[in-house]
């Protein structure tokens, strides 16, 4: 991430004092936390960068505040941690709490897209160029964590987003733990550890609306959690290959994971119900495009296909729906 962000030497442990609290932020937010400030080398839209990490408006691990700040709770290799990210005066300020605080602050630049290379992107279509011009603050985040993206992605397989978001919300709140720091007290939650996922009884998966196929995939994944987390040190392509060794994890799921864990600019989501039609409509007026057509249309963006698809989604250019949405499932009938 050389040259992408310039860190300011302001990492401190705050013990009752206050280090440059932005206007509108309660002073008690900083008590006992650690602080790091980084300066982006270009425009940065916090909502666009971190938005893909949010699993629905009720995600218990993520909160976007009216003041523009974003709170995240993560299970890091060093333990649970809470991170608050805010922008003020052209700088991005990270405040963290818990055993995972240092780990989160060490990776703050990458979380904000510091390892991304947006300058490598060249728009080839008018709709993409327009979206790129209007969304100059888009950077691809890199969390450095696999499981926190893998589990909710598995929950999203073959169901409506509402069903998947509800399952994630129910399971995290019931089996996770309150986030450390000022976000504790039930307002923000850390996802369960692998062993906890492995011990969730079958009836609790059922109550959360998760069928046996998705639950079994998650159980197989958490049994090899260590091996999967090692994939952050691999290229996105090799990481996807390792993920897909686990039965139940295919190209759709692995792409959704590395887009977040690796900031993979070229990882295209194939097998999606809507994306091929949206890309086909935006680039060629083809609302019936399949994965093959979509990949062909995205060939000019080789190396940057995920960014191109993301910009197309942000453009708002999508065909009108002419078929009903995916029906809600009823696992009681399975």
TrEMBL record:
It comes from the Bacteria. Keywords: DNA damage, DNA repair. The keyword Iron does not apply. InterPro entries: Alkylbase_DNA_Glycosylase/TA, DNA_glycosylase. SUPFAM superfamilies: DNA-glycosylase. This is DNA-3-methyladenine glycosylase 2 family protein. It comes from Streptomyces gilvifuscus.
């Amino acid at each position: 991430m050389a040259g992408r962000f310039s860190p300011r030497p302001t990492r401190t442990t705050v013990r009752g004092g206050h280090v440059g609290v932005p206007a509108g932020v309660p002073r008690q937010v900083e008590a006992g936390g650690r602080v790091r400030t980084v300066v982006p080398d270009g425009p940065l839209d916090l909502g666009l960068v971190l938005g893909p990490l949010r699993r629905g408006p009720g995600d218990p691990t993520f909160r976007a505040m009216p003041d523009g700040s974003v709170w995240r709770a993560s299970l890091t290799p060093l333990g649970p941690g809470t991170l608050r990210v805010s922008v003020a005066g052209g700088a991005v300020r990270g405040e963290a709490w818990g055993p995972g605080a240092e780990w989160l602050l060490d990776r703050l630049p990458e979380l904000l897209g510091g390892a991304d290379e947006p300058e490598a992107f060249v728009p080839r279509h008018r709709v993409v160029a327009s979206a790129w011009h209007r969304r100059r603050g888009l950077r691809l985040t890199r969390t450095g964590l696999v499981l926190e993206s893998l589990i909710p992605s598995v929950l999203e397989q073959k169901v409506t987003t509402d069903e998947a978001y509800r399952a994630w919300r129910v399971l995290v709140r019931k089996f996770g733990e309150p986030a450390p720091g000022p976000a504790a007290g039930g307002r923000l939650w850390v996802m369960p550890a692998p062993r906890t996922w492995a011990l969730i009884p079958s009836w609790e998966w059922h109550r959360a609306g998760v069928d046996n196929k998705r639950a079994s995939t998650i159980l197989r994944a958490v049994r090899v959690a260590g091996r999967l987390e090692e994939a952050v040190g691999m290229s996105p392509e090799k990481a996807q290959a390792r993920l897909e060794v686990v039965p139940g994890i295919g190209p759709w799921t692995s792409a959704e994971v590395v887009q977040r864990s690796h900031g993979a600019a070229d990882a295209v989501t194939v097998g999606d119900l809507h994306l091929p039609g949206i890309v086909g409509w935006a680039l060629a007026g083809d609302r019936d495009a399949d994965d093959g057509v979509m990949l062909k249309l995205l060939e000019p963006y080789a190396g940057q296909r995920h960014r191109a698809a993301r910009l197309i989604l942000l453009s708002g250019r999508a065909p009108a729906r002419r078929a009903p949405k995916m029906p809600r499932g009823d696992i009681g009938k399975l």
